[in-house]
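Risk mitigation, structural track. In case the binding assays with tetrahydrodeoxyuridine fail to produce interpretable data, a predicted complex structure has been prepared as a fallback.
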Amino acid sequence: MSWGSRAEYMQRNGNSMDNKELYKRAAQALINAYAPYSGFKVGAAVLTKSGEVFTGVNIENSSYPAGICAERSAMSAAIGAGHREFQAIAVCSQEGSAWPCGVCRQFMYEFSPEMTVISGEDAEHIEAYTLNELLPKGFRL
Ligand code: THU
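Fallback model:
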């Protein structure tokens, strides 16, 4: 995809970082996933409103429910560093796309219902939706 200038890209994408670049950061992160039980490694990269990127991986546990998805792992790193608003998150598994589970959608909805959610089979085949599209009428207190 060639959209010319960076300014033109941002006008169309709305985010301060290329979706494909964020996806590549997620793909790099998944190397460190800890998934000995499912064997399904996932990486995520979240872009904060201020333009910083935090990555996360799925971390499984002998007590299965204690495990955490890559998305909440990345979001937690960013939130713990003080961030509260997000532009986008990219998610990638060892087998290609990995769209966030329902729990992660709700977790992210708390902070940025309008954020972009990116996944795809590889960096050349990414798709993007808003979180609002993936979780219509999400819950907020
Ligand atoms: N998983 C994620 O980390 N993110 C997703 O979007 C889908 C599922 C993890 C949870 C578990 O460690 C493994 O993938 C299999 O469900």
